[in-house]
Specification:
- The chain is of the alpha+beta class.
- The strands form 2 sheets. A 5-stranded mixed β-sheet has the order 2-1-7-5-6. The protein has a two-stranded antiparallel sheet with strand order 3-4.
- A hairpin with a 2-residue loop joins strand 5 and strand 6.
- Helix 1 runs parallel beside helix 5.
- The chain is elongated, with a radius of gyration of 33 Å.
């Protein structure tokens, strides 16, 4: 059980994670490591470095931890954005009720006076009735939202384009940054029923939510490569050989969902380029067809024999009865 002690941390500049020296954690691709491009469905998730002699049991465990850790960071970021707008979460028995109903039922939020944001609250009513409306001031809101942006950048899918491998340490760093920002704004901590605190303490209940469908339990995780399931109990080299400089695309899948869809022969970007090229070609052919119009040949000025007939007096000859 992880305690709710929100320890302040230094908010690190995410730019350094994009420009680390080769071999550094989260840096550029290690030339002696196998690089896995992990996808879920058709969406790229992250890059992961490992070794060809790594047991697939270990690889699956590490990939699953990073995948689910990134989802946790995203969920916390979404909740912190709500926290910045509308304050702490109301107790479950008060959520969704109107003020009149709360007064009629004589319900009291005992955490409202305990969890006051630094610098004092600003009233921003929550229309759905989930939060108490005692939001942080603009300065504290900026602290929360800036940290959210930094945390998202650390585990972003854009890291794939930047050729940056995501590690579990980077996921933990993002969580520490979020924990530190919440501690700055709420030094006394958050209520035990607040989803941010529950996520930090690994007590979140995702049952019946869309988020639960995205999570892949480690025991149910499968890795697929080249339309083959990479079986636990084997090593990575049993499938891809012993070349440590290999880069492969693997898909993460839940057990029982069958084989994932094959990768298309061309990417979506290539398809767009082909459509654009076809459209431009059609426009060019249309212009050429218009420029090839030869109806002008029926005009008098284009008749090569007109001058000869004029000298011979053969112009304006009409055939028919007088």
């Amino acid at each position: 059980m992880v305690s709710l002690a929100f320890y302040p941390t230094v908010l690190l500049d995410p730019v350094k994670f994009f420009f680390q020296l080769p071999g550094g954690e989260g840096g550029t691709e290690d030339s002696k490591m196998v690089q896995l491009h992990v996808k879920r469905g058709d969406e790229s998730q992250f890059l992961f470095n490992t070794s060809v002699d790594a047991p697939l049991e270990t690889v699956i465990q590490q990939v699953t931890s990073i995948y689910n850790g990134r989802l946790k960071v995203k969920r916390i970021c979404a909740e912190i954005a709500e926290l910045a707008d509308h304050g702490i979460t109301l107790p479950p028995n008060m959520q969704g009720l109107t003020e009149d109903q709360i007064v009629e039922l004589k319900l009291i939020d005992e955490w409202e006076e305990k969890c006051v944001p630094s610098g004092g609250p600003v009233l921003r009513q929550d229309e759905i009735g989930k939060r108490n409306g005692q939001a942080p001031n603009e300065k504290m809101k900026e602290v929360l939202m800036k940290t959210v942006d930094e945390a998202k950048m650390l585990i972003s899918k854009k890291q794939v384009q930047a050729n940056v491998c995501v590690t579990m340490d980077m996921v933990k760093e993002a969580l520490d940054q979020l924990r530190g920002a919440v501690m700055i704004v709420y030094p006394m901590g958050l209520p035990p029923h607040d989803p941010i605190r529950m996520e930090m303490e690994d007590r979140e209940d995702l049952s019946g939510t869309q988020a639960s469908l995205q999570v892949v339990p480690e025991e149910d995780c499968q890795l697929w490569w080249a339309a083959k399931e990479m079986q636990r109990g084997k090593k990575l080299q049993d499938y891809i050989g012993k070349n440590e400089k290999t880069k492969i695309l693997v898909k993460i899948q839940k057990k029982g969902q069958g084989a994932p869809a094959r990768e298309p022969l061309i990417t979506e970007e290539q398809h767009k380029q082909m459509v654009m090229h076809y459209h431009r070609r059609q426009e060019e052919l249309k212009k050429l067809e218009e420029a090839d119009d030869d109806s002008y040949l029926d005009s008098d000025w284009s008749d090569r024999q007109a001058l000869k007939r004029q000298f011979q007096g053969l112009t304006n000859i009409k055939w028919g009865p007088r």
